[in-house]
């Protein structure tokens, strides 16, 4: 009996976050853990990411990628969606609820993440610029606009639209990028929401697996 | 015989681009035209976008939204994907090709659009700041990195992965936001790619329809 090969994902050999689980492979690991699909990881160095062999998998020279037989994908959103379509557990069965869960995936990636990316890029690449100190609060306020709206929408609900879905997975993963900034604490409903995500056993398994790349320890031992 | 109601989308009553087709309703209009689905448009003022009635449809107080019977969606990516799933013409039948087309939708929205949004935000909100002139080329160079990679990937192909798909629709729509900047002209393969998108009859119908909001003329007369 032939056993289907486990999909292979790529991750940073040395993630810039030092194992805090903020690199985009974490989203894919988390989705795979949620649906109970084992996977293999190929670690890629910063240099190798920009070489033709990796660019053939990812035209923008980034991680993660996803290989499954003949299929090769990139973009964490697309990979998580692919996993969610092929397995039960990350998208509702009801057609309308499914479309709404997918909407939250796109909202996380195209409405909430861009200002957060801007903050990270600013901190990473503009720290030595003359305008850094003045511009930082401008960038942060743009994020606050989004966080306030998201918090108002979420209200006292556990998840964005009924049961936990790929939309929540992506939104929590995006919001986690703000944790070190302290901005999330200004929105107690959102920090509780993120904490609910982090408390999921699948999240913890995925987190331990990405951390093990740094500690060199097996996540289970 | 009951005829299914046409979906209703929202668009700016007065788009900030003055009818250049850069607002995100254009992507939805284009998708609907590609699949031959008629639709209705409800125009929303800037004030009304932030009111509870519209926020019930779009938690971030933006356009477009999409209403179809009991279903209400927001996020242009999610709406275009919903249209592409329900109709033939925007996603390939082959499962792997379909997953790759979806990958390009996410790549357009989460990898290519964020630096372009940063440029637009910079031009719109930071023009009077002391750092504007110095920071602008930094932002533009980040876009050039992505454009160069995308151009290398596209090469001499007409579309990103075989036949025209929702991935191309989204990528062309995102790249069009750069047209006025002249940056697209630095990448002849990409400007030809965008021109192929604009030459599609469905694009032209969608463009004329959004322009008619400004001219007050019916797009067909």
Describe the structure in brief:
Two copies of one chain form a homodimer. The first copy, chain A, contains nine helices and four strands; from the N terminus they run βαβααββαααααα.
How is this structure best described in words?
The structure is a homodimer of 221-residue chains. Chain A is α+β, with helices and mostly antiparallel strands. Chain A has a 4-stranded mixed beta sheet. In chain A, helix 7 (166-176) packs across helix 8. The two termini of chain A are 31 Å apart. Chain A has helices at residues 25-35, 46-49, 52-55, 76-86, 95-125, 132-154, 166-176, 188-198, 201-215; strands at residues 8-12, 40-44, 65-68, 71-74. Helix content of chain A is 55%, strand content 8%. The first copy, chain A, folds into 2 domains: 8-89 and 202-215, Glutaredoxin (3-Layer(aba) Sandwich), CATH 3.40.30.10; 95-200, Glutathione S-transferase Yfyf (Class Pi), Chain A, domain 2, CATH 1.20.1050. The mean pLDDT of chain A is 94. The interface between A and B is large, with 45 and 46 residues.
